[in-house]
Amino acid sequence: MKKERLGNSDLQITTIGFGAWAIGGTGYEYAWGVQEDKDSIEGIHRALDLGINWIDTAAAYGLGYSEEIVARALKDWSGPRPYIFTKCGLRWDQEGKIFKVLEGDSIRRECEESLRRLQVDTIDLYQVHWPTDVPAEIDATWGVLAKLQREGKIRWIGVSNFNVEQMQRAQAIAPITSLQPPYSLIRREIETEILPFCKREGIGVIVYSPMFSGLLTGAMTRERAANLPDNDWRKRDPEFNEPKLTHNLALVECLRVIGVQHGRSPGEVAIAWTLLHPAVTAAIVGARSAKQVEGVIGATNLQLSKEEVVKIENLLRP
Q1: Considering Cα of 23, then 24, then 28, then 30, what sign does the dihedral take?
Q2: Strand partners, 179
Q3: Is 151 strand, coil or helix?
Q4: Which residues are registered as beta bridge partners of 90?
Q5: Per-residue confidence at 317, pLDDT binned at 50, 70, 90?
Q6: What is the 3-state secondary structure (H, E, C) of 246-283?
Q7: Domains of the chain
Q8: 3-class DSSP state for residue 55?
Q9: How confident is the model over 80-97, as pLDDT tens digits?
Q10: CB distance 173 to 145 below 8 Å
Q11: How far apart are CA 180 and CA 284, in angstroms?
């Protein structure tokens, strides 16, 4: 599988990584609904079987449970150890409500807790999950991450959901290895300033939700969207509801037509489109089972023609 160097690091990562958000299960504010641990572990193993060499998780996914499932999956894995990426800066209360906490002492505790849950001595990439509007909090958090890196608890440090100004502020304290932003055919805001900045600065970019959380997979229908369970955060998302849903499903049909020409799914076309941008290093692809992994892996070697890209772009225009 094709690999790319991630920013200023020595990590050579596959252009698709396993996203572990959904395998955190239910019981918190941004849950994806009920998830079977057996399916999660089989999905991770299948991804590794097929050559994927990194897993992206976060403390907030399942309120720590996603990290624990990753550890369980790797305990039974006999092949090469994948890189483990996780995140900090989000805490939760007893009701499962998530809130931002960017304070030095809290970040250090989070790191220790993630090391324990993941059952590792070092985290390969530790990322600030979300910034705050208080610059001093970003300074404090980034300073602690740089110190944890020097201590050997973290190999490389990155950010997620940061804008250019916030990245510049962090860069003044310590180099940023990578940015993790949302990017898909539905969400393209980062193309204007953020991706060009990362390209100029040599910051790696690992995009999340390239299939917009399942909407562009080809498996999402109008009926399925309407019947998402109440404990699935997507039920409340405007893109899964009218008036946007009709346009999004039309986009999926365009991806389906293109995919047929390559023997690929609409989701694989959507992922491959994000990888075309020269600033994008790799894409995080969430999966809840081995079958879902098998349905997206073909994006790694899918080459879209100029004509196909134009066809997609024309549909994206208002």
Answers
A1: negative
A2: 159, 205
A3: helix
A4: 100
A5: low
A6: HHHHHHHHHHHHHHHHHCCCHHHHHHHHHHCCCCCCEE
A7: 3-213+274-304 (3.20.20.100)
A8: strand
A9: 999 999 999 999 998 889
A10: no
A11: 9
Q: What is the CA radius of gyration of the chain?
A: 19
Distance between CA atoms of 248 and 216, rounded to whole angstroms? 8
Tokens 């900045």 -> residue? 197
List, by residue number, the catalytic residues: 61
Report CA 200 to chain centroid distance, whole Å. 22
Amino acid at 219: A
**CA angle, 74 as apex, 69 and 76 as ends, to 5°?**
105
How far separated are the first and last CA of the chain, in Å rounded?
36
For the stretch 147-154, contacts whose Cβ atoms lie closer than 8 Å and that sit 24 or more positions apart, written own/partner, are 148/107, 148/108, 148/111, 149/174, 152/122, 153/111, 153/115, 153/121, 153/122, 153/123, 154/111, 154/122, 154/123, 154/125, 154/126
- Which of 52, 60, 53 shows the shortest CA–CA distance to 31? 60
User: How confident is the model at residue 30, as a pLDDT?
Assistant: 87
How much is the average pLDDT of 54-77? Answer: 97
Distance (Å, whole) CA 161 – CA 191: 14
